[in-house]
Amino acid sequence: LAKGPPCPDPFALVKSELIPFSDNMKLLVASENPILSQAASHFFEKRHGKRFRPTIVMLLAQALPNAHKDSSEVVFERQTRLGQVTEMIHVASLIHDDVLDDADTRRGGDAIHKMYSNKVAVLSGDYLLARASVLLAKLGHMDVVQVMARALDSLVSGEIMQIKANGAADKKSSEDKNEISEPMNGKRSFLDRAKAALNVGRSQEALQRELAERDAREMELYLRKSYYKTASLICDASRSCALLAGHASDSEVAAAAEEYGYHLGLAFQIVDDVLDFAMDDDQLGKPAGADLSLGLATAPILFAAQDHPELRPLIERRFKGDGDVTMAYETVRASTGMDLARKLAGFHAQRAVDAICRVAPDSEARDALISICYIVLSRNK
Ligand code: FPP
Ligand code: FPP
Ligand code: MG
Ligand code: MG
């Protein structure tokens, strides 16, 4: 990675595959209800986004060796379908996410629930998910169905984890009857205080150890949520792409493809979280430090807390105290938190490169997959 990107524009390599992608997509999601068809196809046409996931699937399709008895054209067609299914799941989750987050905009325009209504948003997300499931099953590969079902499970788990974490410290949302939160949440801070009282007579060493364990737990939680939310879909789609190429579930190629997606997804999420601190509002297109306002403790702040223990109580109350967001933001900016988080992202990006180089022979598509790791690390928006 230190040498720079081997392929200047990895997206250009699969451009020709992605052009008919959108037209095809419209046919795939056509329904009897014009509003539903319109809403469901909206994000495949004019505002199609970066198409990160299908790009990676198509590049893997070219880079991985074909071990299937069927011809490579037939295999490639199935892999293309997998790319479409993946993007459909992604778009469905974004449409639902904007309802859950009460977000007005998506991809530089109105969110679906703003363009139409909540009902249309819920239904068109469901509809896309249902279409994706039918297309997935039609691929006729049991292991692929299983792996992609796990991706859905992970996406939803990530969302539930996030709602729980926020519900814990957010007074306003705990008053909201629609919010999902654990009944134990209110009591937890009391239990923590009781535990802290017991700590009074304990050795410094034991306290330090407990704090280190708590930091490790927070980091674990953060990484798990990032896996569910960001890495799982691309990681499971990458594995599925290898399976469709005829590689067995326990093969080195399937494992390496999965590893590639896993590490790339994590690197991407960590960089995303660094940018939330590194950029100002204008550069970001949304308020900087937004994650803090949402109560999210991401990698930069978790690293910063190691040198700045005064951040720990803020993290614990999810930045809900007066002035918490500003104080946390300033502290992180003046700390090594962002640098350390970038290093962690670099570690994951390198692991992704190692994984793909282990199984894919030298090719343009492999270079493009390596370049994507590089781009993820060096992007600044
Ligand atoms: C929208 O996806 C954002 C999310 C699903 C949350 C976090 C995702 C990322 C930081 C990017 C995922 C990275 C990889 C390597 C797959 P998006 O940024 O892909 O949105 P788009 O489809 O509108 O471009
Ligand atoms: C974006 O995150 C959202 C996700 C990564 C996934 C959302 C998943 C669900 C709503 C579960 C339902 C899933 C399906 C398949 C229907 P974000 O809100 O942090 O990012 P943003 O800034 O792009 O909104
Ligand atoms: Mg959102
Ligand atoms: Mg969300």
TrEMBL record:
Keywords: Isoprene biosynthesis, Magnesium, Metal-binding, Transferase. This is Solanesyl diphosphate synthase. The chain holds residues 91 to 471 of 471 of the full protein. Belongs to the FPP/GGPP synthase family. GO terms for molecular function: metal ion binding; prenyltransferase activity. The keyword Endoplasmic reticulum does not apply. One of its GO terms (cellular component) is transferase complex. GO terms for biological process: isoprenoid biosynthetic process; ubiquinone biosynthetic process.
